[in-house]
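Predict structure. Chain length: 96.
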Amino acid sequence: MPLNIRIEVACATPEKQWVDALEVKTGCTAQQAVALSGIADAFPGLALGGCTLGVFSKVVDGGYVLQDGDRVEIYRPLLLDPKEARRQRADKSRRR
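Prediction complete.
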């Protein structure tokens, strides 16, 4: 088993997209990779504690052990529930 693996950490906001390629020790978790990535510097206003993590679009917890080639994705909290947004759009179109 290799001592190090290569991974990526990705995050996006409406204004900015960010991907960082890292080489980490085998056994590194998703949360550790986020901490090592320097994302806190790239997105100073992002509350990382409230963000959900995923690997290739599949939600994982912070303790997920990464494998070589994984991409850790940081998902921001939703600003509005999708059902509520749809209801608001429907109400708006009815008023026209």
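Summary: The chain has one domain: 4-95.
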